[in-house]
Amino acid sequence: MLSNEIIKKLLKEYEETRQRNERIHQNRLKQLYRDFPRLKNIQETLDTMGIEVAKEALKNPSESQRIIEEFEAESHELMKEQAILLTRNNIPLEVLEIPHTCPRCRDTGYLEDAGKCPCFNQKIVKYLYSQSNLQEKILEENFENFNLDIFSPRAKEGEISQKDNIQSILSFTENFVYQFPRVKKNLLFYGPPGQGKTYFCNAIAKYLLDKGIQVVYETSFKLIDILQRYRFEKGDPLAKGQYGLLFEADLLIIDDLGTEFNNAFTNTEIFNIINGRLLDNKPVIISTNLTLTELDQVYSSRLTSRIYGNFDMFKFYGPDVRWQK
Ligand SMILES: [Zn+2]
After folding, report:
1. Are the CB atoms for 260 and 225 separated by under 8 Å?
2. What is the 12 CA–ligand 1 centroid distance (Å)?
3. Burial class (CB in 10 A: 0-12, 13-18, 19+), 207
4. 113 Cα to the center of ligand 1, angstroms
5. How far is the CA of 118 from the centre of ligand 1 (A)?
6. First-last CA distance in the chain
7. Nearest CA to 14 among 147, 107, 78?
8. How many Å lie between the centroid of ligand 1 and the Cα of residue 111?
């Protein structure tokens, strides 16, 4: 699901780690050989012997077994001497080996069975977080910390209570993230501020990012800023990258739709993004403080009809609960 470019970028980081560790290793050895010239001497002897033995074994294949055994016996003695010298001076034997930041994959990102090392998966999640635009606070705004008790259990005649409404949205969204991306859905959260819409957006983003899914989160204000810079400041590489992500990310969350300065340009651009993603079967979540009637007034009917036809819609209502958290 991740683009090859991201993988390539992360593998490059591994390469840099290996090079850095190699430099650390060489510097340590230099210091060590300065302090203990005998160690340098041993290492050089081992290296030369190794090359000689390989040559000789190739020349006399029938004798190769014996040649190698002799070499092993001899090199064993030298290594023992090396080890004694180090231990006597309280130097750990590891000093002779290249250090690895991750010993499991030796900083390659892959395990011996060719599967990804856990450190690679961590790296991916970290990278996805850095690209998602989400703030630190989403670490707290997740499904585990969700507190249903702050919502009002009182119901008006013929309506379900705020609490029951939120409960059913919670079940739906938990199922949504659980099944993502096997089942793909687009969601619209609408209703007045202070009802928990942004909390839901954050909880969804966190859950999916932790699974290694690429989520990009933008307020509509920021979204328009990206679109404008992309269109009018050609050659701005940052805007180009951010613009591309709006289409490519596995999930795009647009928070607070309707707060942006709205005109024909923004209307068309927002349509292009949502329509493009629908055509590619890439989900979108929108939250807005507008009512459906207001959405119809602000946006073109081609945009709203795409939303009504393709999104699961959730109405938030009841008292403002933000102050109670
Ligand atoms: Zn690793």
Report:
1. no
2. 14
3. buried
4. 13
5. 6
6. 36
7. 107
8. 7
Q: How far apart are CA 283 and CA 274, in angstroms?
A: 9
CA of 9 to the centre of ligand 1 (A): 16
For every residue of 226-275, DSSP letters joined together read HHHHHHHSTT-HHHHHHHHHHHHSSEEEEEEET-S---HHHHHHHHHHHH
Expressed in angstroms and rounded, the spacing between residue 206 Cα and the centre of ligand 1 is: 23
101 alpha carbon – ligand 1 mean position (Å): 8
- How far is 59 from 56, CA to CA, in rounded Å? 5
Compute the mean pLDDT over every residue in the chain, rounded to the nearest whole number: 90
Backbone angles phi, psi at 189, to 5 degrees: -105, 120
Dump pLDDT digits (tens) for 219-233: 888 899 889 888 888
Residues 290, 297: contact at Cβ < 8 Å? no
Distance, in Å, from the CA atom of 298 to the CA atom of 319, rounded to the nearest integer, reads 25
Q: What spacing in Å lies between the alpha carbon of 116 and ligand 1's midpoint?
A: 8
Rounded CA-CA distance 178/63 in Å is 63
Q: What single letter denotes the amino acid at residue 189?
A: F
| pTM for the full predicted model | 0.74
